[in-house]
């Protein structure tokens, strides 16, 4: 226990820097291969066509500069889990971590939070900047609507402004998630912060579900009341809302699909933002259509339009909701069909050294990052290293990046 | 997949033979064993799953009582409101309806969490409890929003006469009902206290030197001890916590409506007070939901749980003899109270692997109540 301080600091690094390295590796191949996720200009439709769904491209490890031994691939999953080169982690990482956590403490005040947002918006990637522009547009528009509504005493405008503000708040949360998810894992968030993007996508999906539900209630209300109040000023606000949201849809046009294959966490977040803006624009379009039909004299136009909009928004959001819900519930990764998993299971258990396989659990941290744990019963006297290598290799080909294998000797 | 079921049924038969009495909960939970059983510690896992299901049936009873009581009150209010033709009473009945909805969600989540794990859902359905609580909290927010909207509506349509006396009486009735429910739910303050003292553990990690002194003492404490005091406290089922939160926010809002009803009864011109009171108390009610939201957030982010001191855990593991190093340590919670650990350990060349595995597993179970542990051994390569 004399050198406990020394070993404590080192092991603290070791516990979570494993994931730091993995994080930085997983980011660099994307920049080399041509910016699929970040560039808004590349057409993502071609990125998704015809990919075998369970084939995850194995993360090619890039050799960082700090490693002296550059001949061996650093942290390729086959060898790292078994031989850990112990002297690899340098001490300057402790200061980084301390700095970042100090930053978090500072960020707790709202003013510094706003400053932080501005700073990161300037230095962020394209999508982040687009989202920032979109949010500022929305904020400007909703505050203008609120002021006008309050001064002229029109309740419809005020409630619409509140609704918009709530949507803005959600978009800000998405922005916050985009920025924060880049932080390195630390001792409390041992898996890093990438889950935050999935959470923000889930929140957006929930909001959209709620929107669809409230539109249905409004349609029902209009049906029961059977009075169609025709408010002119609401149409102006609906048109402006539609324009603002269409700008947003244009920004995120690469994600304007219902069913999307998510390759990484940011995909989910961008998709949710796009759906949010799309649903809002559909709602405004529905309102405009309802007023036009009412002006034409069609009865029950409001009920029809609101019902249609509610149904459309619901259908739009359900795939995203199911996908994010599945990740948050730690379901088996949808990209790995259970036939592939059971095939791996069979392959492992038919090996002669292994007598039993149990507790095979796989879950996705974020889309594209699968974590698993498995427990093996091995006959006495067998060397564990080749077994470990075999199991790691097998699951790595399937796409499980992090596997913890427990070997019990019977 | 068939082999897994075979081995699970073999284990089931083994354990059935070992347990002389077959209580109802044990047979209900035999398919839980597929998830939590291992050959080495079969008994402790069975105990855990029995106590787990006992706790769940207790929660179920509490929630069912809550729902029945609220339904009765709601029916009374609906009948009374229709007879007296009072919109306010009917609105309160609608409020009760949302309470029932919140409790039903909690009940459903408690029921679902008991399901056995499936190959697609390998950790069981415990996470659904967390989602259920998220949904209840959002219902609470929705109710607060609607109340604020109604208060604004009352102000703007000044021609509507507000009956202060009726408001006060209804709010009083609601207050008493909810107070009764608190006693029924049987909330104890322990989960507040231990979350207070342990929420420092993760945030103070960066003061390495100070932690070091604390840890030296902590390590000496944990060698040969039963369990550190923060974990002796029973962690309540998160759904009961959610239902309690529901009742709590109801009480706060009832108090607010009582006060504003009283003021409007005494001085009918001061309608602004109604809006002000509603705003203040709704914000207070929302503020009480924030700790629960934070807990849900931490669980969904796979964060190391607040109840477990990571530094203590790591040092305790390293203090086991024969164990040289621990890395890739991940601890996270499936739901409040159920923890999972995965790590890699490096042991010396002479130690026996099975012994090290059982030592680590015992330490995690006894000291931190982590029942699902997966350990990968990397022997030190020298």
From TrEMBL, chain A:
Task: Tell me the membrane topology, using the record's own terms.
Answer: Multi-pass membrane protein
Q: Where is the Cation efflux protein transmembrane domain?
A: 131-329
Among the GO molecular function terms of this UniProt record, one is:
zinc ion transmembrane transporter activity
| Keywords (A to Z) from UniProt | Membrane, Transmembrane, Transmembrane helix, Transport
Report the main location listed first in the record.
membrane
* One GO cellular component term noted in the UniProt record for this chain: Golgi apparatus
- Positions of region (Disordered): 18-76
What is the protein name for this chain?
Answer: Cation efflux protein transmembrane domain-containing protein
Residues annotated as transmembrane: 131-155, 161-180, 201-224, 230-252, 273-295, 301-321
Where is the protein found, in the record's own terms?
A: Membrane
**Which Gene Ontology BP annotations are present?**
intracellular zinc ion homeostasis
Organism encoding this protein: Coffea canephora (Robusta coffee)
TrEMBL record, chain B:
Q: Which GO terms describe its molecular function?
A: zinc ion transmembrane transporter activity
Q: Where is the composition biased (Basic and acidic residues)?
A: 1-14
- Report the family membership: Belongs to the cation diffusion facilitator (CDF) transporter (TC 2.A.4) family. SLC30A subfamily.
Query: What is the official name of this protein in its record?
Result: Metal tolerance protein B
**Keywords from the UniProt entry:** Ion transport, Membrane, Transmembrane, Transmembrane helix, Transport, Zinc, Zinc transport
The record's listing under PANTHER family reads: CATION EFFLUX PROTEIN/ ZINC TRANSPORTER, METAL TOLERANCE PROTEIN B
Stretches the record annotates as Disordered: 1-21
**Which lineage is the organism of this entry classified under, starting from the top rank?**
Eukaryota, Viridiplantae, Streptophyta, Embryophyta, Tracheophyta
């Amino acid at each position: 226990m004399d050198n406990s301080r020394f070993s404590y600091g080192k092991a603290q690094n070791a516990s979570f820097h494993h994931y730091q390295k993995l994080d930085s590796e997983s980011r660099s191949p994307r920049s080399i291969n041509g910016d699929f996720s970040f560039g808004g200009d590349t057409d993502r439709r071609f990125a998704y066509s015809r990919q075998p769904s369970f084939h995850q491209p194995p993360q090619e490890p890039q050799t960082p500069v700090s490693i002296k031994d550059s001949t061996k691939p650093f942290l390729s999953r086959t060898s790292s889990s078994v031989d850990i080169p112990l002297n690899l982690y340098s001490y300057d990482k402790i200061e980084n971590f301390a700095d970042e956590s100090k930053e978090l403490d500072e960020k707790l005040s709202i003013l510094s939070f706003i400053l932080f947002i501005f700073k990161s918006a300037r230095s962020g990637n394209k999508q982040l900047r687009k989202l920032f522009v979109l949010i500022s547009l929305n904020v400007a528009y909703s505050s203008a609507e609120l002021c006008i509504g309050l001064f002229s005493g029109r309740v419809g405008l005020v409630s619409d402004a509140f609704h918009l503000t709530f949507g803005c708040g959600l978009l800000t949360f998405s922005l916050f998630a985009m920025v924060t998810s880049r932080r390195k894992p630390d001792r409390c968030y041992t898996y890093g912060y990438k889950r935050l993007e999935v959470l923000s996508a889930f929140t957006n999906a929930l909001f959209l579900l709620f929107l669809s539900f409230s539109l249905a209630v409004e349609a029902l209300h209009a049906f029961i009341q059977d009075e169609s109040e025709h408010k002119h000023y609401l149409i102006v606000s609906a048109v402006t809302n539609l324009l603002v949201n269409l700008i947003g849809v244009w920004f995120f046009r690469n994600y304007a699909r219902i069913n999307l294959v998510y390759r990484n966490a940011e995909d989910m977040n961008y998709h949710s933002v796009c759906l949010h803006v799309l649903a809002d624009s559909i709602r405004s379009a529905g309102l405009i259509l309802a007023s036009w039909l009412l002006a034409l004299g069609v009865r029950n136009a409001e009920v029809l339009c609101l019902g249609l909009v509610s149904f459309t928004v619901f259908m739009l959001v359900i795939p995203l909701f199911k996908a994010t819900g599945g990740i948050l519930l730690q379901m088996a990764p949808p990209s790995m069909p259970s036939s592939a998993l059971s095939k791996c299971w069979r392959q492992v258990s038919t090996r002669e050294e292994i007598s039993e396989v149990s507790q095979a659990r796989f879950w996705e941290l974020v889309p594209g990052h699968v974590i698993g744990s498995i427990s093996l019963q091995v006959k006495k006297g067998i060397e564990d290293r080749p077994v470990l290598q075999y199991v790691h290799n097998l699951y790595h080909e399937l796409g499980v990046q992090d596997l913890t294998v427990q070997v019990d000797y019977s | 997949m068939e082999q897994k079921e075979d081995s699970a049924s073999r284990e089931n038969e083994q354990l059935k033979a070992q347990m002389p009495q077959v209580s109802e909960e044990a047979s209900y939970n035999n398919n839980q064993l597929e998830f939590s059983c291992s050959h080495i510690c079969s008994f402790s896992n069975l105990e855990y799953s029995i106590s787990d299901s006992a706790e769940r049936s207790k929660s179920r009873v509490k929630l069912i009582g809550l729902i029945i009581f609220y339904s009765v009150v709601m029916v009374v209010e609906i009948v009374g409101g229709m007879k007296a033709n009072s919109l306010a009473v009917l609105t309160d009945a609608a409020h009760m309806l949302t309470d029932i909805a919140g409790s039903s969600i909690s009940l459903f989540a408690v029921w679902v969490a008991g399901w056995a794990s499936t190959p697609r859902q390998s950790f069981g359905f415990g996470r659904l409890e967390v989602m259920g609580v998220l949904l209840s909290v959002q219902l609470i927010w929705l109710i607060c929003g609607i109340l604020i909207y109604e208060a604004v509506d009352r102000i703007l349509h000044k021609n509507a006469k507000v009956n202060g006396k009726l408001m006060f009486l209804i709010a009083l009735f609601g207050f008493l009902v909810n107070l009764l429910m608190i006693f029924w739910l049987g909330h104890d303050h322990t989960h507040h206290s231990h979350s207070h003292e342990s929420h420092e553990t993760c945030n103070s990690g960066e003061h390495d030197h100070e932690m070091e002194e604390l840890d030296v003492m902590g390590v000496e404490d944990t060698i040969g001890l039963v369990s550190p005091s923060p974990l002796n406290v029973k962690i309540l089922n998160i759904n009961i916590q959610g239902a309690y939160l529901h009742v709590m926010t109801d009480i706060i809002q009832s108090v607010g409506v009582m006060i504003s009803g009283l003021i409007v009864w005494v001085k009918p011109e001061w309608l602004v007070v109604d809006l002000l009171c509603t705003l203040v108390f709704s914000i207070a009610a929302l503020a009480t939901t924030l700790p629960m939201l934070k807990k849900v957030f931490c669980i969904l982010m796979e964060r190391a749980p607040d109840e477990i001191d990571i530094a203590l855990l790591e040092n305790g593991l390293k203090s086991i003899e024969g164990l040289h190093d621990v890395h890739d340590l991940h601890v996270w919670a499936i739901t409040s109270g159920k923890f999972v650990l995965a790590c890699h350990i490096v042991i010396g060349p002479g130690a026996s692997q099975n012994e090290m595995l059982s030592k680590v597993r015992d330490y995690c179970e006894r000291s931190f109540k982590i029942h699902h542990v997966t350990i990968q051994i990397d022997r030190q390569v020298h």
